[in-house]
Structure formats: C-alpha cells, structure tokens
Amino acid sequence: MIENAYQLIVYVLTLLGVYEWIYGIFQSFGIDYVLQIIIVFVEIVILFAFVLVTVMFLTWMERKVVAMVQSRYGPMVTGPRGLLQPVMDGVKLIGKEDIIPAKADRWIFTLAPFIVFIPALLVFIPLPFGKSLIISDLRVGLLYIIAISAMSPVALLLAGWASNNKYSLMGAMRAVAQDISYTIPLALTAIAVVMFTGSLSTVDIVNAQGGTWFGIIPKWFIFIQPLGFILFLIASIAEMGRIPFDFQESESELVAGFFTEYSGMKFAMFFLAEYAHLFAVSGIIVTLFLGGWEGPALPFIPVQLTSLVIFLIKTYAVIFFAMWLRDTVPRVRIDQLLNLGWKIMVPLAVLNLLLTGFIVVAGVI
Amino acid sequence: MPWISKNWTMKGIIKGLIVTLKHVFHIGGRPTVTVQYPYERMKLAPRFRGKHAIDEDACIGCGICEVNCPNSTITIVKYNTRWFPQFNLGMCMFCGICVDVCPMNALKMTGNYELADYTRESLVYGPEKLLFKKEANQ
Questions:
Q1: What ranges do the domains of chain B cover?
Q2: Inter-chain CB proximity B36 and A73 less than 8 Å
Q3: Cβ-nearest to B20 among A324, A339, A344
Q4: Which residue among A65, A73, A77 places its CB closest to the CB of B32?
Q5: What tens digit of pLDDT does each residue of A302-322 get?
Q6: Hey, which bits of chain A come out as E strands?
C-alpha cells in the first residue's frame, strides 16, 4: 500500500528496476539514510516547483478572469493567449532596483518577505493532491495547516513596521486585525469537520468523504454542513485578504498596504505568497468540504493521476469562484468587516459546532 | 441591531455574480469590446478629426484659420512662393474650427491619429507634410 509521495517514488523506481541498484550503492557505503534524504529532497523540490508554476499560472488566470468580466481581452501578446505573461513579469521584477528606504529597519525589512513566503509553501506539505500524492500525512495535519497560516500576520506586521511608513503600518495593523478575527471562525468550522472524522489527518478527512448516498450524492461534507462550508469560504477569503475584504492593501486608502515600500524581488515574493495562499486555501476547502481527490476512478489509468486531476479541477473551481467574487463585489467598510467577523461569523460558527455535536452524538449520519 | 444586513440572503451579491458570469461567457450580447490595438484598429467615423490636410490648389493663404484658431496652433508660412498654414500639433486640440472657417474649403482632417513623437519640434507640421492635390487623390 502506497501512502505518501516517498513510497510512490520508491515504487516507481522499483518498477523501473533501478531502486535496488541505487540502494545497494548507498548501502555499500553504509549511508542508506542519505538516499532517504535525497528522495525527500526530490519530492519537496517537485512540490515547490509545481506550486510555483501553478502560482505563476494563477496570476495569469486572475488577469484573464478580470478581463473577461470586464469585456476585455487581458494579456494576449506574450505567448499563446498571453500565457507567458507571468514569466515576463518575473523577468521585469528581477531587473528592478531593490530599494530599501533609508529609515527602514533593514534587517526586518529584508526578512519579512521570506517569513511571508515560506509558510505559504509549507502549508502544502500535509495537503493531499491525490491518492498517495502527499508529502507527509501528519496526524495533526489540519492543526499544522492552521498553525502555519497563523504565522502570516506576524510577517505582515514585520513588513509594515520595518517599512517605517504610515500607510504600511496601518495596512499591517488592519491585516492583523482581520487575520485574527477570521482565523477563529475558520478554525471553528474546521473543528466541526474534524468532529465527523475524529481525525486531524487530511488523508483521513478525504477518506471519510468517499462513497455516495443513494448512489448519486457524493458523501462530501458540504452536503452535511452547508453552513460550515459557507462560513469557511467567507472566512478564508477574508483571511487571504482578497476583495471584498482586502483591507490590508485597499488601494484608495493605503497606497498598497504593508508592501507599499517593497520593490523588485521582495515585492514579487509578497505577490507570489498571496497566490500560493490562494491555491493552498482552495486546496484546503476542497479537502475539507468538497471531497478532496475522491471521484470516479477510470480503468487502465493509475489512480494517482485521476485523483490528481480531480483534485485540481475542484481546486480551480474554488479559485475561479474567488476570482469571480473579487470582480463582482466592492470592498466592504472596515466596521462592516469586523462586525461580520465577530458578531455574525463567530456565533454562527459556534452554532454550527453545536449542531454538528448533536448530529454526531445522535449518530444520524 | 443595525449592523445585521436586511439582505441576509445575499440576493444582491448573487445577482451581481450572475451578471459577471454572463460577461465571462458572453451570454446575451456581451461581446469583448476592446481591440488588440497595434494589430487591429477600430473603425473610424468618417468625420473623425485627426491630422490636418491642406488642398494645395484651393488654399489662398488668407490666414482666417490662423485668426480663428483658439490655441494659436496655426501660423502662416511661406512655402514655394505661396503662403500656407503651418500646424503646431502639440498645441492643437483638434476642434476643427479651422476647417469650418476656411473660405475655400481647402482644409480637411484625416483619420491619422498616431501623432506621438519624441520632440516638441517634430510636432510642428509644415505645408510640406500636409499638402495634397485634389486631382491626385481622385
């Protein structure tokens, strides 16, 4: 039974007939743990490369979706349908001067983009992209995801403070207020899902959603707790800081929020982290509520491939919804945002938890 | 409790989402309205006011256009023993009054709107750039 990506790589190497040979070489030196480290390194590199390519594609997709909503073409010149536009943007940003303001706190100013960027990638480690396509099936996977996501307000505050700019600091304060307000309903609705599965492991959560009721309705958690799904969706969009809730960078009030002073590659890291966060959050929504990689299996095709495709289709549907919402609704006011967070979302999340508790104890489902 | 929206069903948001989705899929007469400019251009109206053109045979160099120009765009200059208007298009607002007041109907405006240039001096269009012969055009 292949459980994670490590075993999958070993399995593929064994099928190719080279694993025994490589293992023998390492064992003859008595350093077979080095082989394990190399394989883990390879899978991490594959994951991060995949995530970064996806994130670059997402910046293109965002621009295309905005353009289609606004009856425009969007990027069309670079590559087919403008598909290479993110590459050109990256080249342009690398060529830009890396400005550090004279009165900025240089050390923190340089550190902040990395503290934003690294957790955005670390979130993907317990995320199941497909059957056995997971780096590590942590037993506390969901807790890990929420804990790693909770690092981002720290980094935003560092960036805002170190810039020594009033707009940066105000944007960072808003981002932190918003992030903390919405992490609570996010975690509470996630707990409601965990009450069904009895496990924080993302793989167990996905496995619990396999199968169907009456042969047609898939056993996704969105059908058991629609309220939880809506709360989680709104809370994650707010936590990402996208329009309707983009207070951290509301352009008309703060120039660009906490990354006003950033340029060049540091700005690119904030930008990439934002889209990596979007991808990660969509993946988490799919894992928790939309059945993860569960779906119809096709004959003659490895289940890893079909499950990966199913997972990506669902994830892109959620991403499209986030972009679509962004192009439709205007920004809410800051008081509306905090009222929504504390006076509506948190009580509803607790109510959802209570109802879920009743259902679980009654053993209806 | 005034902070609870009366529209808790989010009807307005859902309506807006449907409208934007119709734009995405071009449903109900919502085409893409922009054009890929350097590669394709929009069709111009026949009375579009672009760069000027002077009918060499009709112009008498009377200077009425110079007098009437609100931005002092026009100066009358000597060219090949005759007098013609010279346009400083950096100052021109393309109002078309010079065309209207010309007693000989010698002035007209073409559809050329790509007039960007690198220096202010190159925006001064003398008769050598603007003259045309009506016979040659017909």
A1: 52-137
A2: yes
A3: A324
A4: A73
A5: 878 888 888 899 999 999 999
A6: 212-213, 217-218
